[in-house]
Please model this.
Amino acid sequence: MSRFFDQRLAALAPYTPGEQPREARRWIKLNTNESPFPPAPGVAAVLATAADSLRLYPDPTCGALRQAAAARYRLSPQQVFAANGSDEVLAFCFRGLCPQGALFPDLTYGFYPVFCRMFGVRYQEVPLDDAFCVRPADYQGRAGTIFLANPNAPSGLALSLAQIETLLAQDRERLVVVDEAYVDFGAESALGLLARYDNLLVTQTFSKSRALAGGRLGLAFGSEALIADLERLKYSFNPYSVNRLTLLAGEAALQDEAYFRACCDAIMANRALAAEGLRGLGCRLTESLANFLLVAAPGLSGAAYQAALREAGILVRYFDQPRIRDYVRISIGSREEMLALLAATRQILERGNAHAAGKPGTHDE
Amino acid sequence: MSRFFDQRLAALAPYTPGEQPREARRWIKLNTNESPFPPAPGVAAVLATAADSLRLYPDPTCGALRQAAAARYRLSPQQVFAANGSDEVLAFCFRGLCPQGALFPDLTYGFYPVFCRMFGVRYQEVPLDDAFCVRPADYQGRAGTIFLANPNAPSGLALSLAQIETLLAQDRERLVVVDEAYVDFGAESALGLLARYDNLLVTQTFSKSRALAGGRLGLAFGSEALIADLERLKYSFNPYSVNRLTLLAGEAALQDEAYFRACCDAIMANRALAAEGLRGLGCRLTESLANFLLVAAPGLSGAAYQAALREAGILVRYFDQPRIRDYVRISIGSREEMLALLAATRQILERGNAHAAGKPGTHDE
Model:
């Protein structure tokens, strides 16, 4: 147990699942109430080769996947935790690793305060500055586990490693969770700081840079004690939360570094194309290092821009929050999708200008 | 919100995921930060046809699956809840539907007390009688949400519908959760009581009779208000907890009734074969209606019988709990596996007898 573990949960007595043997020997396996039959043929047709193995529970330790992730990131498997998306990883952090409450920016991943309410965790929102940046000095002397999405959402703005280290060094008895859902598109990962700071936990997801949002897989990286805490929580909630197919998919994704690199590079190139085009049309943008842009179109509210894009067949996200009402969040898609976005935005803005020129003093609905 | 919902959770403000359109129109979908690229080719090779769609989040409402389950069980989709295995369904019940604590038998699914500790729920264990049966009268006048595995684990013994109705009628302000993980192997489902009792919630799993333990899928059936409560909890924890592949697999499994029936029938036949054979060898068994047997071998502790079967290459489950130390739990496998179990048990018992005959007064280790 790490010193960050919520002592009110010290009595947790995790469920012990039946043994899931991994050695080559063929057991007659009668210990965990699985079916001896493969799933319905319709399932097999959908899932081709992996279908028959679905009759068996997945490996609750996620052993092979953790091994692959550890090799990729040069850590030990005991420093890696796997769960059902980084949402589940984060849920466990809020449930068990916030004995003194939580701290996070006022504009960030909208799930953080939801988790707090789910688990009765007190929290403080620390305002970003006027440019939507985190100021590490604002966290000096404050108690509670810090949650920082880096790059942050929905701004896409990233802290430098030096800034993260400042937060870690401010108080080594305070845990800092760095949520790196979007780190692979140009920001610096904090993984390198794990060797020197045991008050750091890094979370990542396969939903973005590894294109497995539909598979649900998230990881955490930290000290062996912190990872053991997370395992304890997972085993007290849903030990098999990562299914067999997702384990296979995650492993395969980790093993293809060239494809991963090529996808990230293409997204960064498409981001540059979209950002340049939108700026050329007069839009305001943050310097996003994520796979999305936060965009304010000239003369349009965020809601109006979202609605107009929707008319053009393009879905983007609008957040009805005071500080970002002028903005929409636009995911980075393919080059063709970015060109279509730029064309639609140009049309929307021209229509607005024509309208304004033809009927001075009137407003669009 | 149902009257069973924990009022301490009334302030839950669920996260609202970005829209996941289902209509046929092709959107340029830029609203939820998904990758425009398919996953690594290694993933595609593993998962064949469904792989490319994994870049997109799953439908968090599990709409098509709930529709299929509702049709199969003659309920409305609003009476059906889907989550990542029935463990996750149960976790949400313990988190949010136990404002006055929980009640369950002293011998039952071992996860119930784990959930209670995870979420700080007070609980009372109500002893089974000497034949491992639930006595409904023992629950009369007790407050707290009742959790009953039916058939129960590890006994395999089932309550009749009349007994479940007695529990429901004792106090209509008290919720009864009937965990029907093993119901498809000969017991009576309580689903038919939903029309008359809104204090009933039924949970089921795809891990047993539908052979999808590796896919992780569980359902709950109840009033629309109870199902809305569970949705609220799920959306405050992990809205996408059921992945795309599992949604497809679950739907396919529900649509093949003939295969489902044939598998359940074969398991019941194999259970009868195994039970008769074990009784013929002098073993004691409960009258299990589940896909497992609770078995005490003559002259052997449960631990010794487990160890001896393991030597023979057969894994079974032993629970180190006072009332069942003589027993092991044996899952029902194929006919061939059941014959191998009987042969191994016969050898173990003969060896024990030869030993006892040859060296009177001594004991095996």
Observations:
- The first strand of chain B starts at residue 28 and ends at 29.
- Confidence is low (pLDDT under 50) at residues 43-47, 361-365 of chain B.
